[in-house]
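Sample entry as discussed:
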Amino acid sequence: MVRLPGPLNRIHPARAARLFTSRLRSPQLTSRLGVLLGAAVAVCFLTGYLSHAIQHPPAWFYWPSRPVGLYRVTQGLHVATGLAAVPLLAAKLWSVYPKLFRWPPFRDAAHAVERLSLFLLVASALFQITTGLLNIALWYSPMSFFFTTAHYWTAWILAGSLLIHLGVKLPVVRRALSAPQRPAATAGMSRRGLLTAVGAAAAAITAATVGQTLRPLAGLSVLGPRDPQIGPQGLPVNKSAAAAGVTAAAADPGYRLEVTGPAGTLRLSLADLAAMPQHTAVLPIACVEGWSATATWTGVPIRELAAAVGAAPGASVRVTSLEQDSPYRISTLPPPHAADPLTLLALRVNGQQLHPDHGYPCRIIAPNRPGVLQTKWVARIEVLP
C-alpha cells in the first residue's frame, strides 16, 4: 500500500498506486529531463535579464544600436524557450512527483534547507511559466502586481534555488547519466518514448508560436497571439490610442512637439516636422511578448532634432509621450541610439501617415530596442546634460 501524508492518505490505495508509482520513473529519466529543463531555464534567465537591463539599465550596462534586429532574436529566443519549457517542466514534476510528498518533510537542518530550496524552485518555476503566458496574451487582470517587477525578482529566486538544488543533486545526476540504461519493464510507453513525446510536444509548441519572430514560419504560428496582420497598417498593436487615453490630444490641431536642449526650445507643428528633411529606415518592432514585425518608417532623425537645440556629441535624449497613465510614458535613448541615423521620430509607416494606434502624430522608432521603449504619441524630446 502507498502511504500518503495527511488528507492525501484518504485516496483509495489502488488509485494512489497509479498516481504515485510508475516503472517509467527512474533517476536516469529525471536527470535527463533536469538537464534539458536546466538548459531552458538558463537561456530564459540570461535573455530575460538582458531584456530587463535594456529597459532598466544599470550604470555599467551598455546596449548597442546595431545589429538592428539583435533584440528581436534575444527576446524571441526568450519567449520561445519559455514556451518550450512547459512540457519539460510538466514531465520533470511528474518524474519526481512521489518525492514531493515524502513524510516527514525533512530529517535534519541540512535536509530542511534542501527541501526549502526545492519548494522555492517548483513554486518559482510555476510562477514564471504562468505569468509569462499571461503576459504573452496581454491578460493582466489575474495579476494584482506589476508583471515586470514580479517576473524579474522571481527569476532570481528561481536561479538561486536551482543552483542550490543542482549543488545537492549533482552527484546523483552524474551517477544516473553515466549508468547504463535499463529499459523499463512495462508493456506501455518506454522511457525513451516518454522523452521523445516530451521533445515532440516542445517542438510542436515552438513551431506553433515562433513564427511571431521568424516570419518565414508565420504560417505555422497558429498559437501566436500577435500575428502581424492583426492591427492597422499590417502591424500588431498592444495598446490602442483609445486605451491609452490620447485620442483627443493626438488629433488636436494645436499639437506642438517640444524639443529642448542647451541652445533653447523649439515648438514644432506636424507641418514643421513634415517640412524637415525626411529619412527612411527598414526596422523591426520587437516586443517583450515575443512578436516582432518589420516595417518601413519615414521621419526625422533624432540626432538632427537634438543638434538643432545644441546637443553635445554623446548626449542622451529623453522622450515623453502624450499618454499620462503608463510606467513607460517616459523613455531614454542612450547615446548609441540617440546618435544612430536610423533612430527616427517617425511620421509615416509603409508609406502611410501613422495610424493613431501606431503613434500619430509621431513616434520613436530606433534600431535594436524593445517595442515598449519605441515611444508612441511623442509630446516632448529633451536633450540630457
